[in-house]
Specification:
homodimer; alpha+beta; Ribosomal Protein S5, domain 2; Alpha-Beta Plaits; 2 domains; seven-stranded mixed sheet; 12 strands
C-alpha cells in the first residue's frame, strides 16, 4: 500500500464532572490525513490546510510526524519515507481536542498501511507524546477517546489504565466554538490548586452517576450527573456569555452543558438529534446577540474512533 | 399479622475510593428485630440484646423506634402499639453500619406487617432520620445499602438521588473488627478540610473505575480501583496495625483493602469465598500478634438488603 487516508475525531474532555479523567469522541468534526510513500526514508510534512498557517511543518515539532516517528522508532523501521498531507477540519485551541486528533490520525493511518503491527490501543503511548508536544503536558482525556471512540475513563494516567465506557445510542452532542481564544495554560493556571473535601465528594458522586447512566442508558441520570462544581465555576469566567449559553441549552432540552476541555468551546449532550440541533440554534443565538462569531457542530457521540477513508 | 421478625445487614461505607458516596451490604452479620403488636397504642423497646447495654431504650432516642414513629406519623397512624425486641448481632461503633442496620430493620419489618403501604425505597427518608439521631449527621452511604442491598451510590445527599449498582456474583467481603474504639466524630475531625486538586482527580478516577468494574464484572479493575488516596492515609493512623493488615490481605489475594466506614473495622474484597477466608485468617494473625482482640466476618456481598425472617 503506497497511499492511505484516515480521519480522527474531535473530542470533548472533562465532560462536566470528569476533570482530567473523562472524554468522548465526536463523529464530526475531525482531522484528515493522507500518507503517501516516498522512495527515500524521509518523513515530510508535505502540506497542511485549515490551520491558518499556525501549525509547524518541522517534523520534530509537528504532532502528526512526531507521533509517526516515535511509532517507527518503536518498530525499528528506519527505511520508510512518507509525505504527510494534513487537513485540519476543526478550530485549533478550541477545547475540542484538535491536537489529539492530529496525534491520532497519522499513526492510525500508518499502522493500517503497515498491516497492523500494533493493536489500536497499543498506539496510545506514541499518541501521548504528540499530545505532550502540543500541550506541554500529556493528558489522555482527549487522545484516548480520539483513538478508541466513545466515552473513555482514564483511571490512571501514569500506567495509562484506560477504561472504555458504553455509549447510549441516542446520545448526541452539540459543540459551539466561540471565536475567542483561551490558552490551555491560562485555563489551567486559573484553577485553584486546592479544594474543599465537600466539593471533591460532590464531583466524584456526579462522575459515578454519569458512568452509571452510561452503562444503564439512563438519560435522566446522565443529565442529573452532568454537573461540575469545581472547574466550570472557575473557568467559565474566561468565556463571555457562558451562563446564558448554558441556560439556552438546558431550556432547549439538553441533558447537560459545560465547558469542552479547557474551552472556550461549550458542549451540550442531548437525547436525540432534534434536541441537539435545537440546542445548537439556541446556543448560537446567544453568541450572535453578543456579536461573537462561532462555529457550531452537532454530532452523535462517535463509538468507533478514527477510521480509514481511502487506501 | 401480630408478630414479625426481620434482619437488616451490616454495611461497608466509603469502599476505599467512594468517601461519603458509596457503600455495600453484607449477608452477614446484621441486626434482627421482632415486632409484636400491643393492645394499646404505645411503642416500646421491650428488650435489646447484644449491645452491652449501650443503646438507649427511650423510644425518642433509640433509632429503631424513632424511625418507626416517623414512619407511622407519615402514614397518619396513631393507634398502633408495638413491643420492639432488638437483637444486635454486630459490634457497635465498629464502622460496619450498626446504627444503619438498626434504623432499617424495624421500619422494614413494620412496613411488611402493614402490607407494604410504602415501597422499600420510600422508607429511606425515615431511615435517614435514625442515622442522623445515631451519628449526628445523616449520611446515606450506610443506610441506603442496608435498605436496598448491593452496592449503592449516593449521587446527591440532599435530594437522596440513590443509584443501585450491580454486584458481581463472586464478590466476597472480609471484615475484621479490632476491639479498639474509634469515635466517628474523631474519625471525621482528623480529616483535612481541603485537599489538592490532583488528589480529588485521582480519587474520582478510581471511583469511576470501581463502578465500571462492577458493571462489567471486571475483578481486576475493581482491585486496581480500590485505592483511597485521601481518607485512608489520614484515618489509618487511628488503627494500630492497619498497614500490616492491609499488606496481609493483599498478599492473600484480596482485590483491595481499606477502612470500613469510619473504622476501626477494615474490609477486604475478594473474588470467591476461598480467598476471602484466607484473607480473614491472615488479617486476624496480624491483630493476634499485636494482642488486639478482633471479630472476623466473611460474607458475600448482599444483593437483596433486609429480609423477613418470620411472620
Amino acid at each position: 500500500m503506497d497511499k492511505i487516508s484516515a480521519f480522527a475525531p474531535a473530542t470533548v474532555a472533562n465532560v462536566a464532572c470528569g476533570f482530567d479523567v473523562l472524554g468522548f469522541a465526536l463523529d464530526y468534526p475531525g482531522d484528515e490525513v493522507t500518507l503517501v510513500r516516498r522512495n527515500d526514508n524521509k518523513i515530510i510534512i508535505a502540506d497542511i490546510s485549515g490551520d491558518n498557517n499556525l501549525l509547524p511543518k518541522e517534523v520534530e515539532k509537528n504532532t502528526v510526524s512526531l507521533v509517526i516517528m516515535e511509532y517507527l522508532k518503536h518498530l525499528g523501521i528506519s527505511d520508510l519515507g512518507l509525505d504527510i498531507h494534513l487537513k485540519k477540519q476543526m478550530p485549533l485551541k478550541s477545547g475540542m481536542g484538535s491536537s489529539a486528533a492530529s496525534s491520532v490520525v497519522g499513526v492510525f493511518a500508518l499502522n493500517e498501511m503497515l498491516g497492523h503491527p500494533l493493536q489500536t490501543i497499543e498506539l496510545l503511548p506514541f499518541v501521548m507524546k504528540g499530545e505532550a508536544l502540543a500541550c506541554g503536558v500529556a493528558h489522555a482525556d482527549n487522545v484516548a477517546p480520539a483513538l478508541l471512540g466513545g466515552f473513555v475513563l482514564i483511571r490512571d494516567h501514569k500506567s495509562l489504565d484506560i477504561i472504555q465506557l458504553p455509549t447510549p445510542d441516542e446520545l448526541w452532542c452539540t459543540v459551539i466554538h466561540p471565536e475567542i481564544e483561551v490558552q490551555t495554560k491560562d485555563a489551567r493556571s486559573i484553577l485553584r490548586k486546592r479544594l474543599a473535601m465537600q466539593e471533591a465528594v460532590a464531583q466524584s458522586a456526579n462522575l459515578g452517576g454519569l458512568i452509571s447512566g452510561l452503562y444503564t442508558e439512563d438519560y435522566d441520570l446522565i443529565g442529573r450527573s452532568l454537573v461540575d462544581v469545581i472547574v466550570e465555576p472557575q473557568r467559565s469566567i474566561l468565556i463571555p456569555g457562558f451562563q446564558d449559553v448554558k441556560k439556552a441549552s438546558l431550556s432547549s432540552g439538553a441533558l447537560g452543558c459545560s465547558i469542552s476541555g479547557s474551552g472556550p468551546s461549550i458542549f451540550a449532550l442531548s437525547k436525540g438529534r432534534d434536541i441537539a440541533q435545537k440546542t445548537g440554534e439556541m446556543m448560537g443565538k446567544v453568541f450572535g446577540n453578543l456579536d461573537v462569531g462561532y462555529q457550531l457542530f452537532t454530532s452523535k457521540v462517535n463509538k468507533v474512533g478514527p477510521k480509514i477513508l481511502d487506501k
